[in-house]
Amino acid sequence: MLETSPIPSQRFTEGVPRDEDVSATEPYIKRGIRDEHGSQNPVDAMLYEENGGRKHLLLLSEIFSSVQGEGVNLGSPSVFLRLAVCNLHCWYCDTKYTWLYSEKMLQSVRAELGELGVDESKFPSDLRVYERSAEAREVPIKEVESRIRAFEIKHLVVTGGEPMLQQSQLVPLLRELKNGSGYNEKSNFYVEIETNGSIKPTEEILPFVDQWNVSPKLASSGNSTFARERKDALKSLASLPNSFFKFVVSQECFDQDLQEIESLASRYGISPRKIILMAEGTEASILKDRTASLSKVCEKRGYRITPRLQILLWGNRRGT
Q1: In a domain? residue 176
Q2: By the 8 A CB rule, do 181 and 104 touch?
Q3: Cβ-contact 41, 117 below 8 angstroms
Q4: What number of other Cβ atoms are within 10 A of residue 188's Cβ?
Q5: What is the CATH number of the domain that holds 202?
Q6: Cα(131)–Cα(95) distance, rounded to whole angstroms?
């Protein structure tokens, strides 16, 4: 870990409103369509879109500097812009503090773990409700830009949560970081966006992103197919020449996950050279063994493999 910039908190609204909370979430979220079970589609509850005066704000979790711990730019010194709120709720997510803000959501994740056959004694230690007023705040885009520049590292990784929920706010930020308006020379920031692949990028954001790190969620994540597999979004992202697809492979559903990855690759025309496998886990010793097993799969199928360098170096710590 190089440096971290803690974010003081203000009240904000979580990304997937409960029916009884709709009035409290407006104007933050547009209500989405519903699936066959009457459940709200979180992908279409688009945070901050068409939100008038808040278009100059980002809902922020944290900003810090470290090295990129995953993917094709492994080891690159980077500034991480972590945005709050997510439209999915993966049980193995190691940034639950960006979205797990209600008892109802907690019980939903616990139930999904039970359906996956995970014993309660093996539930993640960070599976708890987080205080949303302590975890995020609305920050003006210009302030975010200033904080990013202060690190003097011209490699930005935008992550979350799900940052694409705020893509309209990201456009002016990335434009400034790429064009260097008001500065003596061009900024030449290299920009990566990490996304779960459920939200289609707009034409406006595409010119400002050098690399898309897409991590579609599999059935073993606990998310429904309806929520996690958005065909238009995946088709669009797969067609980009600068996209890579990182899949988290769980130990409990190893074979099932690999079959689902093959199916998704075939369905959306994802080349094996674009596919990166990563073992699920937040303990270095466990990750080492699981990554070794996955490496054999990658050799046979022509995929890439990535460790979780931040876990190997610093353990499961925030700001790394």
Answers
A1: yes
A2: no
A3: no
A4: 11
A5: 3.20.20.70
A6: 13
Length of the chain: 320
Residue 253 is assigned to a structural domain of this protein: yes
Given the structure tokens 């940052």, which residue do they identify? 163
Q: What is the CA radius of gyration of the chain?
A: 19
Amino acid code (one letter) for 291: T
Residues 54, 47: Cα–Cα separation, whole Å: 11
Listed in sequence order, the residues at least 6 apart from 15 whose beta carbon sits closer than 8 Å to its beta carbon are 29, 42, 45, 47, 85, 86, 87, 99, 161, 162, 165
**Domain span at residue 261?**
3-95+131-314
pLDDT, one tens digit per residue, over 94-112 is: 999 999 999 999 999 999 9
> What's the whole-model pTM score?
0.84
**In the chain, which residue ranges form alpha helices assigned H by DSSP?**
22-25, 103-115, 132-135, 141-150, 167-179, 225-228, 231-238, 254-268, 284-301, 309-314
Q: What are the Cα distances from residue 207, in Å, to 56, 123, 161?
A: 20, 41, 22
Residue 122 maps to a domain: no
Contacts of 239 (CB under 8 A, 6+ apart): 269
pLDDT tens, position by position, 181-202:
555 455 689 999 999 999 999 9
